[in-house]
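Notes, Module 5: Reading structure tokens.

Key idea: the token line is not a picture. It is a compressed description, and you learn to read it the same way you learned to read a sequence, by spotting repeated patterns. We will look at two proteins. The first is printed below with its tokens.
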Amino acid sequence: MTSSSTPGLTRFNTQADAEAAAALHEVCASAAWGRAILAHRPYTTTEALLSTSDTATAALGAEDLAEAMAGHPPIGRPKPGDPTSSREQRGMAGASEELKAEMLELNLAYQERFGHVFLICATGATGEQMRDAVKSRIGNSPERERGIVRTELGKINRIRLTRLVTEDA
């Protein structure tokens, strides 16, 4: 990860608020998180942006966290036509039909238990690792799971923000 300014960071810093807000919504669906990121522009480094993201993610209330999670599709079912969703869930793309069916069942059981999608930073994870994670987390208390979800959301936000400010326009 770069710690200096990039052309993408400069572009983000100078975008109109509405355009930057739209880009941030693609990173994280929480409006409160997006407002917190916008409020601290301009950023001198990518690391400063990521640090602000970490702080904003940690500060999300229950409703804001729910709003953020609502922007994530279930593991194994990336949003059709969404390259970010497909890229992040690549580990499930080559999974066996049995594993995909098991993940669907586990996703439904998790959602029934916690009232939201199973959220994991899936980038670089195999289908088996994601399955094992949902199996291990489904027994958590709601409080413990909320903490894990917040950590996973923070990882996802960092990856997506880094891509936002390092990719070419």
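Here is the second protein, with the sequence above and the tokens below, as before.
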Amino acid sequence: MTVKRLGAAELHAGADELANLLTDTVDGGASIGFLAPLGHAAALAWWRERADAVAAGGHAVWTAQVDGRLLGTVALAFPDKPNSRHRAELVKLMVHRDGRGQGVGRTLLAAAETAAAAAGITLLHLDTETGSPAESLYLSAGWTRIGAIPDYAAAPSGELRPTTIFYKRLGAPADGS
């Protein structure tokens, strides 16, 4: 498996393949902010917007390929407020249905965590659909569950579902505790 951080130009160049991954993820039932069916044009436009965010320094995006095939992606979103520079949000961990159960999600998660720590980020947070396979991944990777918010977002089917909030501290806490 090859994991690579993409620059804005690489993200633009790979937007078509990333759009295919996004539509597959939504078609597979993952609640990542989109309703089904998600058209390729809408997915492509969404990825092109992410390229702009990468160029501006607000996002970092990684992809995972197996035998030259894109099977997953993950991103970090960095806050733009001065009092928040120590943290980032883990967003849009996606694994193609053909790549699930092969460690793609875990590998991408570890890559994002390692890069965040190397950049001086000491706190990560995320939300994920309560009861989803992703929830088990985060728990097994040492993330701390804070709680759930009912009816937080619509699943691809349109049904309102709860979300679970997680965080993970990276490195030693600033106060030494």
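Summary for the second protein:
- The chain has a mean pLDDT of 95.
- The beta strands are 2-6, 59-66, 69-77, 87-95, 123-129, 144-154, 160-169.
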